[in-house]
Amino acid sequence: MKLLVTGGAGFIGSAYVRNHLANNPGDRVVVLDKLTYAGNLTNLAPADHSRLQFVEGDIADPAAVAAAIETCDGIINFAAESHVDRSIENPGEFIKTDVFGTFVLLEAARDAGLRYLQISTDEVYGSIEQGSFTETSPLDPSSPYSASKAGGDLLVSAFHHTYGVEALIVRASNNYGPYQFPEKLIPLCILNALAGDRIPVYGDGLQVRNWLYVDDFAAAIDVVFRAGEPGQVYNVGGPDECANIEVVRRILEGCGRDAGLIDYVSDRLGHDVRYSLSAARTESLGWSAEVRFDEGIERTVAWYRDNEAWWGPTRSGEYREYYERQYGRTLG
Ligand code: NAD
Ligand code: TYD
């Protein structure tokens, strides 16, 4: 099989490509990626390049998609603007990529008669005080990011319903692990802790996220792509929930730093208090999470400690400018 993987130079897409090529020796992958600030070809360096083709291009550009898709047997769409804080600052790019880009890919899947998997997020369901969202929970997104992801998801369902496109959706909870861009809570916290920089905690830090190790999500994607039913949604919730402040405390401990680095800052606008997903439907296909948070966070801290060659360049340039705008202070 030859898969088109869009957004394959990002955090989760590259983990998927590395794992998929390693576990499926007969398969080939074409990565189509625009290489935004979040795309990094180094993320794909450990993959088997004899079966990997990289194409730089935009999923919102029908010609780029048509060229990349030739000879592919299926599409997995990871490409997105993915950070809530950036969506609050500049929502337009999110609509272009996450909504219009998804539409362009769906048109291509429809023309070529290809199976299509949309990578989506628990954030489309909004915040939940108690219990967990299931696939039948109503969509109630709160940020421009989650609204644009929900828009993409609705198009996927419509293309299945109207044109019979063999399309499915997976919605995951917060991923963490190696190669995650440091704008997100866990890598930001690890790198600031290693550098001795203060760690910005939004509001009271009591918001809860449901954490999923990225390799577990990569495995779930393969299971759903192979065995999932077209037109269906599959939620992939992580095995553990944790309040942000507890995540920060564990990272500080893992990096040998004390709580003095914690800096409570103004809350995120429209901040969702809690995300929680039931993974029962995905588990019924034979998947289960293997990495619990205690182990995953240890592995992740160790990876960042050992891979300054990766994050050194990442933690400068565009990210440094973003950080200064977002947090009103410089990185150490
Ligand atoms: P990321 O920001 O690390 O990577 C996104 C990738 O998409 C980058 O390589 C970027 O260059 C590429 N890209 C952006 N716009 C593009 C465009 N117009 N055309 C082609 N490529 C483009 O994101 P991630 O964390 O790896 O997330 C991947 C997917 O998983 C996204 O769809 C996101 O919504 C979803 N998701 C993420 C999480 C999470 O915790 N990170 C959880 C659930 C779902
Ligand atoms: P993030 O990693 O941006 O993921 P998401 O918003 O998609 O869940 O944030 C995770 C949680 O951590 C969220 O509740 C916001 C919070 N947070 C902070 O407290 N400080 C930070 O500097 C960042 C980036 C996030």
Verbal overview:
- The chain is α/β, with parallel strands linked by helices.
- The chain folds into two domains: 2-173 and 212-236, NAD(P)-binding Rossmann-like Domain (Rossmann fold, 3-Layer(aba) Sandwich), CATH 3.40.50; 176-209 and 239-275 and 291-319, UDP-galactose 4-epimerase, domain 1.
- Helix content is 42%, strand content 17%.
- It has a seven-stranded parallel β-sheet with strand order 3-2-1-4-5-6-10, with helices on both faces. The protein has a three-stranded mixed β-sheet with strand order 7-9-11. The protein has a two-stranded parallel ribbon with strand order 8-12.
- α5 links the parallel β5 (115-121) and β6 (167-172).
- α6 runs parallel beside α8 (244-254) and α6 crosses α10 (293-306).
- The chain is globular and about 55 Å long.
- The N and C termini lie far apart (46 Å).
- Nicotinamide-adenine-dinucleotide is lined by residues 6-7, 9-13, 33-36, 38-39, 58-60, 78-82, 97, 101, 119, 121, 149, 172, 174-175, 181.
Beta fraction: 15-25%
Which percent range fits the helix content? 40-55%
H-E string: EHEEHEHHEHEEHEEHEEHEHHHH
Small molecules bound: nicotinamide-adenine-dinucleotide, thymidine-5'-diphosphate
Low-confidence spans: none
Q: What's the number of extended β-strand segments? A: 12
Query: If helices are DSSP runs of H or I spanning 4 or more residues, what is the number of helices?
Result: 12
The CATH C-level name of the largest domain is Alpha Beta
| CATH fold assignment of the largest domain | Rossmann fold
The tally of domains stands at 2
Would you identify the CATH H-level superfamily of the largest domain? NAD(P)-binding Rossmann-like Domain
**Biggest β-sheet, characterized?**
7 strands, parallel
